[in-house]
Specification:
six-stranded antiparallel sheet, 25 strands, 374 residues
Length: 374
């Protein structure tokens, strides 16, 4: 497989990250270096690790721009620590990532133990910032997934082979094609062979050309372009909605995932957790939510229970403290909640008053209140 495009210094970095040492990315004079991770082979790594400087997170974040990389698989797992990865997670660490096989072959016990192991997921083409490398894992920060603990983006570990350097001509200001179907297929030709790639709902890629039946998009990896079916995507400007926002659309978009098995830290149509589903749906409507439920409760107008409307976010906690919020769902009207509940269950619509959640009701917010009235 051809190597991703790297600067000379980035290539030098890629040459040494196979060793069991934490390599922080920095430039001469202490300034960050515009390099990115290369492609590596996943293997066991040493259990001894130097302790990076801490500033409220596991790695100090330089003030100058960090090196940028792009996710080169359908969806990549972001682990909370290097030693959170288990042998049976190997299918999810490949390139391409075998997410379906990984989920199918996990036992309930193995799936339930993703709790406190996975931090989140990142989708094809999503940008990450490279903090450093250790063996075959890369330490990253995700600018588009923020929260109270990570105001500049969630920090975690990803298989290095699932990243490529962000090309200098990657146009983040061009129109984008965002997948509005549950899944879509990126058609691409690699070394003269068709290598289609299935990508998830809410995946966004820069648009190069729009045709009647296909959209040509920039993609990360050994080739720099592919095509998506025109009827599976919305073409729009960055920062604008892929789908015209309305309370009806909040519910309609979420309902497409009814019956989908819950996945802790899930951020794709292969499986969502509660806040992953709400953030995916609202991102399609032009509203970026923080990654986790407690932080999402801060977005939009606070709504009394008696004034709930379809599309509002409803939060649940064991205590009155906002910081103890552990769950979020989408109000579906008539006292019901569209809910991605817990491992072993599926996305469903339930009556709140007839659910265990009733005694944990914390409050509600209306993110759509952030949008200007037409």
């Amino acid at each position: 497989m051809p190597q991703p495009r790297l600067t000379a210094l980035a290539a030098a970095l890629a040459a040494v990250v196979g060793t069991a040492a934490y390599v922080a990315v920095s430039a001469p004079g202490g300034e960050p270096l515009a390099a990115a991770a290369g492609t590596f082979t996943v293997a066991n790594v040493s259990t001894s690790e130097p302790t990076p400087t801490a500033t409220g997170s596991s790695t100090a974040v330089p003030s100058a721009p960090l090196p940028k990389a792009l996710v080169a698989v359908s969806v990549a797992e972001v682990w909370g620590g290097r030693h959170k990865v288990r042998p049976y997670d190997t299918p999810a660490l490949q390139r391409p990532a075998h997410i379906g096989a990984w989920l199918r072959d996990m036992t309930f016990f193995q799936r339930s133990h993703l709790f406190k192991r996975l931090a989140t997921q990142v989708k094809f083409g999503e940008q990450v910032e490279v903090l450093g490398t250790w063996g075959d894992l890369t330490h990253i920060q995700i600018p588009d997934q923020t929260g109270g603990r990570f105001p500049d983006g969630i920090i975690g570990w990803i298989a290095s082979r699932q990243l490529v350097a962000q090309p200098a001509d990657w146009d983040i200001d061009s129109p984008v094609a965002t997948v509005t179907d549950g899944f879509a297929t990126v058609s691409r030709t690699v070394a003269g062979r068709d290598r289609p790639l299935t990508v998830s709902y809410a995946t966004s890629l820069p648009v190069l050309n729009v045709g009647k039946h296909q959209v040509v998009v920039a993609i990360p990896g050994p080739v720099d372009r592919g095509t998506l079916p025109r009827n599976a995507v919305s073409v729009h400007q960055p920062g604008t909605p892929a789908i015209a926002p309305s309370a009806r659309q909040v519910l309609a978009q979420a309902q497409r995932f009814l019956g989908l098995p819950y996945l802790w830290a899930g951020m794709s149509a292969w499986g969502y957790d509660c806040s992953g589903l709400t953030s995916a749906v609202y991102s399609q409507l032009g509203i970026t939510l923080p990654r986790d439920a407690a932080d999402q409760s801060l977005v939009g107008k606070q709504i009394p229970r008696s004034q709930l409307r379809v599309g509002d976010l409803v939060f649940f906690s064991h205590t009155p403290k906002r910081g103890d919020i552990h769950h979020v769902g989408i109000y579906a009207g008539h006292g019901k909640l569209l809910d991605a509940p817990y491992t072993g269950a599926r996305v469903e619509i339930v009556s709140v008053r007839h659910s265990y959640l009733n005694n944990e009701y914390w409050g509600a917010s209306r993110p759509l209140s952030l949008l200007p009235r037409s």
